[in-house]
Amino acid sequence: MTIAYARPAPSRSLYLETEMFSTKRPRPSRGWDAPAFNGVDDLLDDSRSRLERVSARAAYQEVLFGRATLVDIRPQRQREQEGEVHPELAPIVIERNVLEWRLDPRHPSSLPIANLGLRVILLCQEGYTSSLAADVLLRLGIHRCTDIIGGFAAWRGSGLPCHEGASEPGH
What we know:
The chain is of the alpha/beta class. 35% of the residues lie in helices and 10% in strands. It has helices spanning 12-22, 40-48, 56-64, 76-82, 99-103, 129-140, 151-157, and strands spanning 69-72, 84-85, 92-93, 120-123, 145-147, 162-163. The strands form two sheets. Strands 3-1-4-5 form a four-stranded parallel β-sheet. Strands 2-6 form a two-stranded antiparallel ribbon. Helix 2 (40-48) crosses helix 6 (129-140).
């Protein structure tokens, strides 16, 4: 008895999937007309062009007099290592990965403070991530949003009130 083995023909879907990632022709879907940037620095410059960024001292004054809400978007591990804004200033911790959902008042997962008219000052470690995040919030309609130039490093470097350790997100 002779058994013949025939190798299966290559799958068409495998070819299409490979072609999809190797060709540069646009496909009909959302996003192909989105702006393209010449690297992350170009993206950051574009985001910052829409922001009125504030110094650490200016942010401190706004928060101290109740004119703004300070939102720390750093991950818990970074806050544990670097410290936090002192709790007496009531900073809110909302990690970056859930920021839009917590501050968009139209979403069911939003925090009670969420309001399109809220003055929000975002804080990351050095002022890069917070600029990108503030731009996203602006696009969601939170038009009084900005970030701190230099982030928490500038806050601490300016001698502003700090606290060692980390608070739980949402507090």
